[in-house]
């Protein structure tokens, strides 16, 4: 096989070998067996029975679980602050956190293009292992498919997750009420802009680093402290604006945001201005919005600031206003945020 | 956009519209919202809260669940007996059945190539809905990603599944003992050969129809009737031979199969002979092996024959022989089955 660079990771990494994925790695035969035994089980198996066949049997604590899935197609596969592996673990863990659940188990489905370097797969799997260990979640089942050269794009990963619901009250747009405060857990726009800069070789100075990470710990702390969380939403594709529009529509309420309060770092703001991108619509991967009663807002904020000093209240749910609307108050006036139809930044997750 | 045929389904289907998937369908914005509201929720939502955000919260019956995942990359997307949608539901349902679990919930992750016909997506989603309804499983959470034209292959689907474990004893290679009988639930090789024939336009007469379907009902009946199931394995990629080699290796036992007993239909046998393919290694998608104590074999067989008259005992676990070996007894003698290194039939699931 040729040693072309087409499937190598986009970041310079020392290359200790040149074994490449072949179609037979997806056949269920000897090479599939080797891939599982040499790459996946050493990273993920915690007991000899783990990952030995197509399903996992696990004991469930409690009576309610959260269940979520995401496929990851980010380009490039490696970006400042993370890679497709850490993203695939944290993104799904964060979806569980948004359900008020403690993450317990993950599945991983790999669709690999023929020719992908096994060494690169090992690095991504190691990154998944590290992210899973950091958050205390176990990868218990998986699947590998290989598609012919030219019929994939290096690597796609799907992760699904199961968590134990620890929230004692439902967390949902239905709980959102006029007077509630909208808090964001950190500064916005870093993931989308970091991926964009890496993909387009934009040499921002200082470089923008993705916020890719788990929000499980702050959410579990809010729940431990008995904060009445009306709604939680991670601010991924579509950013803060899209997340709040969806919640306002589902809840049938109006929201108002203070533009001046919305935390965006100077490097992200500068990059967005240069590229004509609105940071309110840029994806984050380690940042969420919490909607809480006004009486709980100060306590929630002080807890969140232990994890990220940029956490801040950015707006509130209004008692009047058109149901489903989100208004942005600026020095120049107030205008309604809309869903955007087009794609600002494709394939950021 | 052009109306090129490159992403259309391989079977002739009336085409009621020409809307195509755009990158923005994966952006999290307006088009993603429309896709969910117009295609996914009408097919899958059973209550207004279903599929409204990134995770589902469900009540768990019992204390043990099975969890499994599979990505589906089959080509062509439609084949005699099924399509990627029915395959994605049944394949994952069958993995849960192999854990002795009643399937409850599914997730679906779509990776769609820009340009794919929305109408084709609707048909595949309808096929998933029908397959899920037939088996009584609910699709409760999902995700959609869109990749640029040329960076995918029409459509990949990942499904993950959760089931309630109903087996009172562990079902695992560890339970397998000398004297146990190996039963297969139906005739072998239909799925792989049906997909191969469709992909290569091989006009076998009579046509070979995939066995794509759920094995949940027969497995639950075996459990209901109190059959002591030592091990279950669906005979997908790698076929019967690979499944039994894996079990024999995990269990540290030797098995012996009677070649004459192995059920292969005449059309499949003929097609395999023409193509030089061994049906023992061809994938099935509605067929499993059950390994049971000799004392239970007759009762297990009579139950399985209520579902498929081709169910039959094909071999046994030997008290001697090399651990991990599977021997095939033919009229001409006995030879050891090996894992195959290469890929007979890529992308059959």
Task: Give structural notes.
Chains A, B: InterPro entries: HypE, PurM-like_C_dom, PurM-like_C_sf, PurM-like_N, PurM-like_N_sf. Chains A, B: Residues 177-321 form the PurM-like C-terminal domain. Chains A, B: Belongs to the HypE family. Chains A, B: It comes from Novosphingobium indicum. Chains A, B: It holds the Pfam family AIRS. Two copies of one chain form a homodimer. With 349 residues, chain A is α+β, with helices and mostly antiparallel strands. Chain A folds into two domains: 23-165, 60s Ribosomal Protein L30, Chain: A (2-Layer Sandwich), CATH 3.30.1330.10; 173-336, Phosphoribosyl-aminoimidazole Synthetase, Chain A, domain 2 (Alpha-Beta Complex), CATH 3.90.650. Helix content of chain A is 30%, strand content 25%. Chain A has eight helices and 14 strands. Chain A has a seven-stranded mixed beta sheet. In chain A, strands 2-7-5-6 form a four-stranded mixed beta sheet, with helices on one face. Chain A has a two-stranded antiparallel sheet with strand order 3-4. In chain A, β13 and β14 form a beta hairpin. In chain A, α1 (30-44) packs parallel to α3 and α5 crosses α8 (294-307). The model of chain A is unreliable at 1-16 (pLDDT under 50). β2 (64-72) of chain A pairs antiparallel with β1 of chain B, so a sheet runs across the interface.
Strand runs of chain A, count: 14
Q: How many helices of chain A?
A: 8
Overall form of chain A: globular
The biggest beta sheet of chain A is recorded as: 7 strands, mixed
**For this structure, what is the CATH homologous superfamily of the largest domain in chain A?**
PurM-like C-terminal domain
Strand order of the largest sheet of chain A: 9-11-8-12-10-13-14
Question: Helix and strand succession of chain A?
Answer: HEEEEHEHEEEHHEHEHEHEEE
Low-confidence stretches of chain A: 1-16
Helix-and-strand structural type of chain A: alpha+beta
Rg of chain A computed from alpha carbons, rounded to a whole number of angstroms: 21 Å
- If you consult CATH, what is the topology of the largest domain in chain A? Phosphoribosyl-aminoimidazole Synthetase, Chain A, domain 2
Indicate the CATH class of the largest domain in chain A.
Alpha Beta
Based on the coordinates given, report the CATH architecture of the largest domain in chain A.
Answer: Alpha-Beta Complex
Overall pLDDT confidence of chain A: 91
Strand residue content of chain A: 15-25%
Oligomer: homodimer
Number of domains of chain A: 2
Q: Which bin fits the share of residues in helices of chain A?
A: 25-40%
Q: Which pair has the most extensive contact?
A: A-B, 82 and 82 residues
């Amino acid at each position: 096989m040729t040693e072309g660079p087409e499937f190598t990771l986009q970041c310079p990494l020392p290359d200790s070998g040149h074994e490449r994925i072949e179609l037979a790695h997806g056949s269920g035969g000897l090479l599939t067996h080797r891939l599982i035994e040499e790459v996946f089980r050493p990273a993920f198996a915690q007991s000899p029975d783990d990952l030995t066949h197509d399903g996992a049997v696990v004991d469930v604590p409690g009576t309610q679980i959260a269940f979520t899935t995401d496929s990851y197609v980010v380009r490039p596969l490696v970006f400042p602050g993370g890679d497709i592996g850490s993203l695939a673990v944290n993104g799904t863990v964060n979806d569980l956190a948004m359900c008020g659940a403690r993450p317990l188990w993950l599945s991983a489905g790999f669709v690999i293009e023929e020719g992908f370097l096994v060494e690169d797969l090992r690095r991504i799997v190691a990154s998944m292992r590290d992210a899973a260990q950091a958050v205390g979640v176990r990868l218990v089942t998986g699947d590998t498919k290989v598609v012919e050269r030219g019929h994939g794009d290096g690597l796609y990963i799907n992760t699904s997750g199961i968590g134990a619901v620890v929230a004692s009250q439902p967390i949902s747009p239905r709980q959102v009420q006029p007077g509630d405060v909208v808090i964001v857990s950190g500064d916005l726009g870093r993931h989308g802009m970091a991926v964009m800069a890496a993909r387009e070789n934009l040499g921002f100075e200082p470089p923008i680093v993705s916020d890719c990470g788990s929000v499980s710990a702050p959410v579990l702390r809010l729940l431990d402290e008995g904060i009445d969380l009306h709604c939680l939403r991670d601010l991924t594709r579509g950013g803060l604006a899209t997340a709040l529009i969806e919640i306002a529509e589902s809840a049938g309420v109006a929201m108002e945001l203070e533009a001046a309060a919305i935390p965006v770092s100077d490097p992200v703001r500068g990059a967005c201005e240069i590229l004509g991108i609105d940071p309110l619509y840029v994806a984050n991967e380690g940042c969420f919005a919490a909607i809480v009663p006004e009486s709980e807002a100060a306590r929630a904020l002080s807890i969140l600031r232990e994890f990220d000093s940029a956490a801040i209240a950015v707006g509130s749910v209004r008692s009047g206003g058109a149901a489903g609307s989100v208004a942005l108050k600026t020095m120049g006036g107030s205008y309604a945020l809309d869903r955007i139809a087009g794609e600002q930044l494709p394939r950021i997750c």
